Amino acid sequence: MSDPATPPYRKFPATPNTAPFVNCETLDWAILDRLRAGFLGGTAAAGPYWQSPADLAHYDATYAERIGWKWDAVLAELTRRHWRPRTRTILDWGCGSGVAGRRVLSAFSPDNFDSLHVWDHSPLAREFAATRARAEFPSLAVAEFADTGQPLGLLVISHVLNELPADALTQLLSLIARAETVLWVEPGNHVVSRQLITLRETLTPTFHIVAPCPHQNACGLLTDGNERHWCHFFAEPPPGVQNDSDWVRFGHRAGVDLRSQAYAYLVLEKNSASDSELSALASQLSASPSASARILGRAEHFKGYARLLSCEASGVSSVELQKRTDPEFYKELKKDASYPLYRWTRDDRGRIIAAERV
To answer: Could you read off the pLDDT of 172-229 as tens digits, one per residue?
Structure first.
């Protein structure tokens, strides 16, 4: 099965007329440095940090675009599995500049939705995200979210866990309980990934896990001996980014690695779906879901063999592949870990002797 085309990279995209145009020549580094210091230092959790529309415009053109590459990777995987949300309404919660909601609309086509609602604790962010969405999808109804307590459709959550105080997390969990579908992408570091795993365990009684997990069992990373591991993956930048002078200059000045972006994520579907719908969903994930495996992080390569962390229904374990056993797959693991599900054939020592994409 061939992968869908990689979305084209964006060359510091223009913003609507309500916010200043941003490109590498006009970036305000006082804004970008202040925002990045807040993200890295944890002060972003203290409250709204957007001070002006210019803050959001500069962020949207740079740091948010890199987050967009993570969303592109998740959405490309779902497209490859022929999965799409059943609902026609989207709530982008904690929207920031709104990049997540816009990426979801682009991936699944705005024609498949009736409305996009945005919410953020910052009124500036809500206004910016709504304005950007209206400019990009003029035929779509876009509005700021007003909670009426009704059931929700598709809930989009992006990069919020490291900023949420306890009361805000409680609010978010109440929204998740009312959602039909959840698309949730977070940074791929150990702390945030383990937080997302904990939340996964609380949500499995009412939700079916679409991705990344190849099973519906308890997370194998919670077993003794796996404390140092975490569930994360890597999104490659679109072709052309690393040769683009603007992006290269931005990466050097900002001190960020443009080669790949680590992310953790969850895609959940409410268990209220019918048995036939869940059966169809399972067949989309794999011809034999219980036999599927997923590589967490990246494989480690040594002289003559590779070692990888395999997530399966039976748990998470470290397995090896001898280079001489399957030279092509050994080589593939070095350059491409974006394909999500495999089925292993193992020898009597547990080593992989054949790998099949499923």
So the answer is: 999 999 999 999 999 999 999 999 999 999 999 999 999 999 999 999 999 999 999 9
Q: Pairing mode, if any, of strands 152-158 and 179-187?
A: parallel
User: Taking a C-beta distance cutoff of 8 angstroms, is the pair 97, 128 a contact?
Assistant: yes
Q: Identify any residues that bridge with 69 across adjacent strands, giving them in sequence order.
A: none
| Strand-pair category, 179-187 with 207-211 | unpaired
| Prediction pTM value | 0.89
Q: Mean of the per-residue pLDDT values for the chain?
A: 88
| 3-class state of residue 166 by DSSP | helix
How confident is residue 74, by pLDDT bands cut at 50, 70 and 90?
very high
Phi-psi group of 94: left, alpha or beta (phi > 0 → left; psi -120 to 50 → alpha; rest → beta): left
274-294 pLDDT, tens digit per residue, is 544 544 544 444 434 457 999
Do 311 and 293 form a contact (C-beta atoms < 8 A)? Answer: yes
Which domains, ranges and CATH numbers included, belong to the chain? 29-285 (3.40.50.150), 290-357 (2.40.50)
Residue type, 178: R
**Is residue 301 within 8 Å of residue 334, measured between CB atoms?**
yes
Q: How many CA atoms lie within 13 Å of 316's alpha carbon, on the beta-carbon side?
A: 23
C-alpha–C-alpha distance, residues 282 and 208, integer Å: 10
Q: How confident is the model at residue 336 (pLDDT cuts 50, 70, 90)?
A: low
At 320, which helix (H) or strand (E)?
Answer: strand 315-322
Q: Are 144 and 120 in contact (CB under 8 A)?
A: no
Largest CA distance in the chain: 64
Question: How far is CA 3 from each of CA 76, 212, 216, 294, rounded to the nearest angstrom?
Answer: 8, 17, 25, 17
